[in-house]
Amino acid sequence: MVNMADRWPIFSLLQKDMLNRIKLAIVFGPNGNEALFITKDNDVYAVGTNCSSCLGVGDAQSSTHPKKIDAVCQKSIADVSYGSGPHVVMVTEHGELYSWGHNGYGQLGNGSTNVGLCPTIITTNLTGRQVTQVACGAHHTMALTSDGEVFSWGYNNCGQVGSGTTTNQPTPRKVSAGLGGRRALHIGCGQTSSFTLMDSGDIYSWGYNGNGQLGIGNNVNQPNPCRVPTLNSVIITQMACGYAHVLALSDEGSIYSWGANSFGQLGISNKVNAVSPVRVAPELGRFMEVASVHYLHVSAGHSQSGFVYMWGQCRGQAVTQPHVTEFASTDDVFATMTNPSVTWRPLKVVSPEGHSVAQSIAKSFNDQESADVRFTVEGQTIHVHKSVLKIRCEHFKSMFQQHWTEDEQSEIEITQFTYPVYRAFLEYLYTDKVTLSPEDAIGLLDLANSYCEHHLKQQCGHIIRRGIMVDNAAMLYAAAIKYEAAELEDFCFVFCLNHLSAVTQTDAFESLDKSSLVAFIRKAAVAGAFRY
Questions:
Q1: Is 305:264 a contact under the CB 8 Å cutoff?
Q2: Closest alpha carbon to 341 in 313, 365, 369, 383
Q3: Among 98, 104, 103, 154, which residue's Cα sits nearest to residue 126?
Q4: Residue range 427-474, pLDDT digits in tens
């Protein structure tokens, strides 16, 4: 989450009341001088220089005042991407696809090469399918459906459409050669190359390969998808595509990079291109997120320890290894350290106005002056408010009743849980957020299960997912079973299955109780782990 007005200059054009209405936005264009934003009431607006009619407002005139894009208002936008022309593609929550802007190569997917002044729905070969994600390269477009199918269209001079030829494609065409009916989870585009992340954790790439950005060990362009081979034993969960380089994040939090490196954007302490994936800064520990965008030679990452790193072409400097910053998110890197300053993903917006009710309640946590009850855990005190606890938690609603002893007490001692766990729980009741290590999150999962806090169980699951490693995977799997966290159990099982040989050699696996071990072996057998 970022504050738009503080980080992105183009939003200084907006009046404060309009700024406060924004919930999602992108900044794009050759100079970062165009912006689209969606308001809390689902209206869509555009502002800026309007290069190639990319604002979608029906003309080619620039505007310093936001104009409404009527065709996509009230459509509940789910995803949006942009090209270099620029052209813009939006997806609604219902899976409909709209495009407008530059169209010299058929990248709008409407069958023509005429500039799109207004949003037009794209239907060719997509009727009956629900699009969930879009990605744009310089002048080509990709779409991912809910069934895991990949479609592509537009400029195809290097084979980036994945059709097996170099002929431009004016309408969506399913990418099938090389993918073998496998299900895709995520798509991405470099300037003239394309990538898809499969449910197996493999990455497939195609298109221009002059800098090795396809990661297949050579510099030969590919008109059909090819699997990135050297990531064979690595399960990739996220990827981010730069101008001519790629970042990939594994399920163990490791970053890999490949492709162009003239500005150090691979983060491997040199400026030599890499035609195959290379591990980035393993000494920095586990990462939760990687970021890049096809406009730029910049990379960023957010570590599990909370630090944001940047490398590559940062404000004219070639930063050849991850450099720690004071930023709160990877979005801030692209707002302040790149040229042009464009967004690498749609931005969720924080209102710049004063404290909301939620902010005021969050600020009152552990405030000794206003609190009316305190909890003592392991000799440490946490100050809270009965009214907040009763509103937020059924357990406390029952506890603080007149016939309960605790209702008359100003201090309550907790012995079942550790201080970090109980403090994190109480703070969650004030903020809806959990700040805890993956190890302590298991204790919080136990508490959430005991107190029937289902949403908290989900948050614990997210934290544990980010902290899963070969050494602790079996232990986390057992904890998920014990505390009836079904989604987390499935996630841990898949991780163990993907790293089966290594996991079965760990102390955690050896320590599994009999019931957990039997459950694991049965599930692994059903998944085909023991076939010869």
A1: no
A2: 313
A3: 98
A4: 999 999 998 888 889 999 999 999 999 999 999 999 998 889 999 999
